[in-house]
Amino acid sequence: MTKKTVRTSATRMVGAAIAVLALAAVTACSSGMETASPDSGAAAGPKDGPLTIAFLQKQGDQQYFIDEANGAKEAAQAAGDVTINAVDLGTDSNKAISEVEAAIAQQVDGIIIVVPDQQIGPQVIQLAKDAGIPIMAADDTIEDAAGNAAPFSGFDGTSMGEKVGAEAARLYEEAGWTAANTRILSAYKQDLTVCQQRVDGAKSAFTEAISDGPEVIDVGTDNSATDAQDKAGAVITANAGVTNWVVWGCNDESETGVVTALQNSGVAADNIIGVGLGAYLTCKDWKAGQQTGNKAALFISGVEVGKAAANSMIDLLRNGTALPPQSIANTEIVDASNWEAKGVVCT
User: Are 68 and 137 in contact (CB under 8 A)?
Assistant: First the structure.
């Protein structure tokens, strides 16, 4: 073979390779989707035409998550030509996985998920990645098998807990209670990271403000009001000599459930300092003008979290803007005097 023949063959091989790469690039552009790692938000867009986003939520019948889905739908309506398919997963991890698979089969453009259990994070992330569909977490963080966090919209759990603990400490000091006749009940789902962050933050802030504070008793719940009420009963019975109670929890359900258990056991409202997390249940007694152990709550807006998540996903799909690693919503303490003015939706 001559040198000229070798050069000609090599030229043809390079040209063929370039053609293959060019075809791949055209195909990627026409699909409007590229696969990427969770931390980059699965680069996508721009994509014209209608968009469909699956919004898969644990405990979708709770008011917070109803508000969150409505917030996402408001963002979709404002953006135009975007459909939000909200699905209630309950507390069923198997349903969560099957609904991710169903969303993929329906060829949705994006997936936002509030997982019932963070342990399924690697599986749902991989399913979405294999399908070339961007996925982000709301409320509860998830990671892939390598420990890379998916983009997230929600709250800073530790900061939330610190606000709750600081308010509880302020009310405790104002009441003039002592550690000897007081106990703190901390109710939460103990295998959920965000819950642990919240109650740890509450305890840290309370301890910082009150150096010789009461004993903290943990109450494990499934984050429902009914379970919190049931689980608190045994603890209250075992501490029959306690006069005063401070209560906080992972969410409004846990806190109000414990306060209800205390009041049902005969503890007067004046002997309970309950600081909720959500405000959508704690406000019920305020709305009714009742004496209650629910003295304050951290107002968290599910609407704003839903809007932030949907807007981020729409921006990715429409404009190719990477999903932000974290979108953190604001929170503030409310009570019977100002909850309506602050925009709390009381259920």
Answer: no
